[in-house]
Write a structure and sequence with these properties.
Layout lengths: L4 H37 L2 H20 L5 H16 L3
Amino acid sequence: MPNIKSAKKRVLVIEKKTARNKAVKSEVKTEIKKFLSVVESGDKAAAKAKFPSVCSAIDVAVSKGVFKKNTAANKKSGLAKKLNAMA
């Protein structure tokens, strides 16, 4: 445990940021799992309806600094490929 006042504050701030990042990342993972389960079921209409909400969750994670832009683009691209492969 730090002794210096500013270091103590940094520990508290980092704990808050870690909790927020964990929550945002968990939300994205949950949305992706829901989307993939819809894709697995084969319901293309439901998958198309779910895709924008998944992309939105990923974009929120980018805006909060949890994911980098390229990571988000990679995730969205992979999900779009799965959606388009449902022909």
